[in-house]
Design brief:
0% strand; 4 helices; 119 residues; transmembrane; cell membrane; mainly alpha; transmembrane helix; UPF0344; binds protoporphyrin IX containing FE
């Protein structure tokens, strides 16, 4: 399940980069279609994250903070992508996205029981 989780959010980052680059080239239709695929990928992130949560919820408050950071990352990535291809100001969403992902990565890899980095 951890592999599915990591694969699905890495895929999300790639799709997000494609949405932004298509939007920058003025290909709004392509950006919208890629955004639809990105939304399907959110389901994989939520499913795998939800299953990990079911297994590790008893670990304590850090897992709950990790879950919230993950949800925050998805919400801010969705807003950043939509604002970018609509050519509206997106900076505040990108900032939130970076903070949320940083928290998710640090907790996920560094502090939680699934983590692969040394503690
Ligand atoms: C872009 C969004 C996300 C990123 C970058 C991210 C990142 C990570 C990372 C790095 C790990 C550790 C994996 C490992 O060491 O094997 C992890 C585990 C986990 N993630 Fe996420 N995640 C995201 C979204 C979510 C969401 C939306 C949820 C909840 C629905 C969630 C819930 C969890 C849980 C419960 C774990 C297991 C923690 C543990 O006990 O080690 N994640 N995530």
């Amino acid at each position: 399940m951890a592999h599915l989780h990591i694969t699905s959010w890495v895929l999300a980052f790639i799709l997000l980069a494609i949405v932004v680059s298509l939007a920058k080239k003025g290909n709004e239709k392509g950006a919208k279609i890629t955004q639809m695929i990105l939304r399907l990928d959110y389901l994989l992130i939520l499913y795998s994250g939800g299953s990990l949560f079911a297994s590790y919820a008893s670990y304590g408050p850090l897992v709950i903070i990790k879950l919230l950071a993950g949800l925050w990352a998805i919400a801010s990535m969705e807003m950043a992508a939509v604002k970018t291809y609509k050519h509206k100001p997106a900076g505040i969403w990108w900032t939130q996205f970076i903070i949320a992902v940083a928290i998710a990565l640090i907790l996920g890899f560094g502090f939680l029981p699934m983590g692969i980095l040394p503690r």
